User: Fold this.
Amino acid sequence: MFSTNSVKTGQDLVKNARQAREDRALSKRQESAAIILQCLARGFLARSRLSKRWRYELDQLIGWDSKMTEISSSEMFLIIKKFMFVFNFKTDKLRFGELCKYLVHNTETNDNAKTCYIGLSIHKQLVVSWINQVKKLLWTCCLYLDQNQPQFQTNEGDLVEVFLKMLVTFTDVVHWKALAKLTTMHAVLAQLCGRFLSYLNERGGHCVLASVLNSAVKSTQNLFVIKSGFNIAMRIISSGDVNDQVLAFTLHFLTIPAIIWHLQLKATECVDELASTGMLRRAILLFQAEGACLKNGLIPHQYSSNAVISVLCALANFVHLFILEKETLVELHTQCVSLMNQLVKFLYENTTQHKSNLTTWHPVLGYFNNSDAGHSPSMQFVKRQLEYMWEPVLVRAFFHDVLTLNSLHDDTSVPVQAEQLSKPKSKTKRRKMASSRPRQSLLPTGGRKLEYVEVKTTCLTCLLYKRSLSVFTKQLHLEMLTGLTFMDEVLCRLWRFICELGPSGGLQIFISSLSLRHAEADPYFAVFTLFCDMTSHILSILDDVEFYDLQIPFHLEELVTISSFLCRFVFKLIWSNVVKDASSPMYPIFESAHTLLLMLYNRDARRSFTPPDHWLCKDVKSNTIRSEVEKSQPRGKLIVDKIPFMLPHKDRVLLFRSFVTADKLKLGGSITFTISDSEPMVHIRIHRSRLVEDGFEQLAAMQANSLKGVIRVKFINDLGLDEAGIDQDGVFKEFLEEIITKVFNPDMNLFKVTAGGDMKLYPSPLSHLQDQHLLLFNFVGKILGKAIYEGIVLDIPFANFFLRNLQGQQHTALYSPIDELPSLDPEFYKNLTWIKRYEGDISDLDLTFTYEEDIMGSVHSHELIPGGAATPVTNENRIMYIHTLAHYRLHTQILQQTKAFISGFRAVIPKSWTSMFSAPELQRLISGDNVDVDLTDLKKHVVYYGGFHSTHRVVRWLWDILERDYSSSERSAFLKFVTSCSRPPLLGFVHLQPQFSIRCVEVPDDEDTGDTVATVLRGFLRLPSKSRRAHNYNHRLPTASTCFNLLKLPNYPSKDVLRDKLKQAIANNTGFELS
Assistant:
């Protein structure tokens, strides 16, 4: 009906119509967009012109452009309103700062209410709008302060002061000069300021100011920032509820590092104002209850390093406030202790348990995973605040109950530590001081039940200080102990408190506490550990006169009681497996008790004050303990390591020999030797004229395992020929004796003898004049170790301090070098103690921290500390001088020699073997027992040769002479004649190597061919020899082969001849003849 062209034409019409509609719609949209863009552009341009004009008006107002003529307050309000409408926080910072400066100046200097901005506060129509405008201005200041506080740059420091000044001025009517005369309106105006403060408080203005102060103290900002910031912050806080005030002050301001320190230093009036508000009292009462710090947010629920720093700062500021407000401290001392215990407990739990390889050093907490806050310069002030914890004011308050309670003893006079030790005293004063002690020793009596309030309070106080000792650095740890120890009579009163604690009193209560849960027992153990730490600290300072003669701070009888309990307590912890290693929960308590126990034991080992067998274990048989050790049981090892003196000395020597035996068995099949693989021993050749040189050359480089093996010695005489004789341990013993005699001879300059009458040996400070002196010391150490390893007794008297060096005891906790100084030089020790007690001004003596010594006619000066030559000795540092000088003489001066000697000695004898012995006991291990010769024991273990036997007349005469005619010293001389050592072996003659022997001889040694059937029969039957020479020899002197411990006796015809000849031989020391 329709053609194709007609259809196409219709479609085109529809398409064209649609396109026309779309074009018209697009045109309308474009027109609308253009209108919108034009509106936006015109609006932007209008706003820009308006903003520019309004900013220009403000610039005129504040004087940036031309100076505006004086305008009314309402016009000023309108200009500021328009400016705040177009205000841009980023770009208008400086302009806003100038506005604040202008408003502050206008408010403080303009006394015309009509032209003063503050006059709008009494304008009926504009007052509400003005209040809102001021709020906006003040909050904008806070925002800028919050933005600027992380870094107080130079160009922003002035703005910070301006913003703070703005806050100060508009929140206190005192600065409103124009309204100063309207006194009737001041109450209303004060309420108006209160509204401003409340608004800032609601918006968090106090938090902003806390951040400002935090940054200010870190960067040591000027006084105004700290002073004004704190004042306005306290006014803002005071506008809230009572509890909110305390929380805001504590959480936001007391957590600022050393804020109270800075306020006291730079703004004392702020501290006075704070005290007048009673804020500290309210804070103590709010946070003192158990768990209150956690509940109220002072202690966070989760660990973080920043949280630890905040709690630390709060603790330091609280301590400082306690010092400043003494009346509050005294009145609420119990609550103060409770509050501080919560804070210190958090620090204890979150610093001691968060140490790793990534930790860094913190000046208060030591190695701790801290943030940048730990490196703040204010941490040094936090440290100073914490030092107030051991100030007398605080200590008296915290230990109030201990210091004021009446004693249950008849005698209540207690020596005052500060008077006893901190001041020099004459002999008269020392006598007076000694008489001020209790007339009778304080011994356990009991009487104070654990439920008593004073008991609980004292336990909590001790817990506070004990945790603090664990939290702070070692330096603060020692300073705290010093402060507590020398503070009045705290230590003595604490001992009295312990004696009266519990039903039976004394330290028994602490053993009973082992059965309690850890949390329940903590307060009681805190008393115990604090007492141990304080006593250990003061014992390290006391010299022998104060300890033994004046008996400061305890009677010796009291120390016997204390040491007896400590033995039981420490043993029980180990034997009951309560303490297995350093990871045990009870280990800190064990460590405190063990340290004090060792100090008392070392004192007693040097100069006894305890009864015999005092240190031995009474609860378990020594055989049982030794069995545990030999079976390598953990508790047995720990006893030998920590408290070996609880075993009898004989048992420890047996243990030592068992260690040696086990070591020999262990090494028996694995030792390789240097001379011949087919021979299970080392052969060395020694020229008698080059004894030390040959021994050093052949033995110094020998491996430790080889040195522990069998060493055979062949001597070469002056002609270069081998000497006759077979070494069956005897020649090696002779070699050891002779080489040790040479190297320990002071003429060789390796060793020196102590001053006084003791003449004990120690390394020479001038040994460096000898070639290869350190290698020689290492060699001598090996030789001495070999002698002890083989059980060869050597008569070498070492100085006591050097023996303690050999044991490594100079590195133990609270080791005091002054105690060992008498063993080096009694006169030098006397001079140092004179300096300690000198009553005048020490600086008059012109001493410095140096030590001068004469080296081959030339005086050399050594600085005891860096810059010691320029550091004078004063009354304040004389104790440090005494200990430093003693340490130099005993250790530093011979440090390298001692290290080399110990290195050689330890190559043969491990430290764990000798740590079982005290210094005097180690000397006995080297030189034998310092007792009379036990002839009964010697008779049992003697071997006879040449026809002699136990009933032979000459033998009977010999024993009878030794027993009846000889004194103890003469018997020792006889033993030295035969064995080269005047002391018997520690475990008796059964352990003498080689065995003690007596041989009947007929001819001189050079003609002696040994025992034959004829000589044995003649000796046994007491028949005289037919040889004339033998007959003559029967009237010659006895001789001895010390290398074999062999006594050679002719068959004397009578007892008198034997007596005379033996005495003559011992007096002339005929000594060794080769066998």
Observations:
- The radius of gyration is 45 Å.
- Residues 600 and 770 are 40 Å apart (CA to CA).
- Residues 4-62 form the longest helix (59 residues).
- The mean pLDDT is 82.
